[in-house]
Design goal:
Layout lengths: L1 E9 L12 H14 L3 E7 L8 E4 L2 E6 L13 H14 L5 E5 H12 L6 E4 L4 H8 L9 H11 L2 E4 L2 H9 L7 E3 L23 E6 L8 H8 L5 E6 L11 H12 L6 E5 L6 H6 L3 E4 L8 H8 L4 E4 L2 H6 L6 E4 L4 H12 L2 H18 L2 H19 L6
Parallel strand pairs: 1-2, 1-5, 2-4, 5-6, 6-7, 7-8, 9-10, 9-12, 10-11, 12-13, 13-14
Antiparallel strand pairs: 3-4
Length: 398
């Protein structure tokens, strides 16, 4: 099968460099897994670097840089018309895919535009939804104004939407999709990299460690863990994410969180590490006794999955991808969103019970290896691609 994965954002600045964690990294891994299944895969991204080659080989698939200029508006959406026209021309005269898979809302718009009036089936993964972010983040939502109506229109233009958690299914159906046109396929975890054995980041052996992972943008939720820490007792909270370590002192959100920690009396217990390369994250997960996941919005649940793959129990808010991946009282604990007291009491009790942490950690590892590997994700999507092709009655490209 010929599979086109349309990302439409700019690629990494240097080829061969590990892509940043997020949609780009997940698209790259999906492409590699699909190619291992024997499919002819091409990833289309925007070519912003004039010195970069227009096409490269990576892990068995091709990365195609699309040389386009914005033609309609500003920001990423301004590239969509030209991107779609370029794809349509290529697919009409050169390599024609059997199925098109758009990623993020901009990639989906370009994919749907290129497919146009052809019989090409289009699958869409949003990775996040503007309407859901607006609901949870309120004034903290910073997405472009046109995103929400364009996502709503896109949802009606594709053959099938791939959601990454149950909450996203509900949101997509509220946007107008029929329930049969939405399927949940969570992202996979690299279980070779994220595993219980291996190097651990340094720590104070006599003090329990809570790890919180994520950027310092709107809705990160680290402030809730800081407030809960006063109920935990003698434990340290290590926050990984945000700017590089050398830039932490100048970062306004780091300064705000440090003031908050001082105000609630836990200033000496909170440590900021800054951004860490993804290939070093496993050592930080392994160093923790428990990982806290309290974002206002989380569609993918990647942090709890990576922690669970390292055999570490998770305490998180019962929302989005966290609620889907963590089984309460089996692989960790779920608490009501925004309940600081429940969060603090749960963390304190779990940190005090080594046997419970051990049991949760083993169950978490088993759950990830059974349900959340990348080969399972790719195989599931392979069946979805075959399904939408049959429903469209599209002829094979070859």
């Amino acid at each position: 099968m010929r599979v086109a994965l349309v990302y439409a954002h700019a690629g990494p600045p240097q080829r061969g460099q590990q892509p940043a964690v997020g949609p780009h990294q997940r698209v790259s891994r999906l492409a590699a897994e699909l190619s291992r299944l024997g499919h002819d895969v091409r990833v289309y991204e925007r070519l912003d670097d004039a010195d970069a080659p227009a096409a490269t080989e990576a892990d068995g698939y091709q990365v195609i840089g699309v040389p386009v200029e914005p033609t309609n508006g500003s920001g990423p959406v301004g590239y969509v018309p030209a991107f779609g026209r370029w794809l349509a021309q290529q697919w009409a005269h050169d390599w024609r895919p059997d199925v098109v898979h758009g990623h993020f809302w901009v990639g989906g718009l370009a994919a749907a535009s290129a497919a146009g009036r052809t019989t090409l089936p289009v699958v869409q993964t949003f990775h996040s939804l503007g309407l859901e972010q607006l609901r949870h983040l309120g004034p903290g939502y910073t997405g472009p104004g046109e995103r929400i109506p364009l996502e709503r229109a896109l949802s009606r233009a594709v053959d099938l939407a791939v959601a990454q958690c149950s909450d996203e299914v509900d949101e997509l159906t509220r946007m107008g999709l029929h329930r049969t046109a939405v399927v949940v396929v969570p992202a996979g975890v690299d279980t070779d990299r994220f595993r219980p054995d291996g190097e651990r980041a340094p720590r104070e052996p006599r003090r329990r460690r809570i790890l919180a992972v994520g950027g310092l943008g709107p809705g990160h939720g680290h402030d809730d863990v800081i407030r809960a820490l006063r109920l935990v007792g003698d434990a340290e909270l290590v926050i990984v994410g945000g700017p590089p370590a050398h830039a932490l002192d100048a970062h306004p959100e780091v300064r705000r969180l440090r003031r908050l920690a001082q105000d609630v009396g836990v200033g000496e217990q909170v440590q900021f590490i800054g951004g860490v390369p993804h290939d070093q994250m496993a050592s930080w997960y392994r160093s923790a006794d428990v990982v806290a996941c309290t974002p206002r919005y989380a569609s993918t649940g990647m942090v709890p999955l990576e922690a669970m793959a390292c055999g570490v129990p998770v305490v998180g808010y019962a929302r989005g991808g966290v609620a889907d991946t963590v089984i309460d009282n089996v692989t960790g604990r779920l608490v009501p969103v925004g309940d600081i007291r429940a969060l603090g009491v749960t963390l304190r009790r779990l940190l005090a019970d080594e046997a419970e942490r051990f049991a949760y950690g083993h169950a978490a590892l088993d759950r990830v290896r059974c349900r959340y590997t990348w080969d399972r994700t790719a195989s599931t999507l392979e069946r979805i691609y075959e399904r939408v092709r049959r429903n469209r009655g599209a002829d094979p490209a070859d």
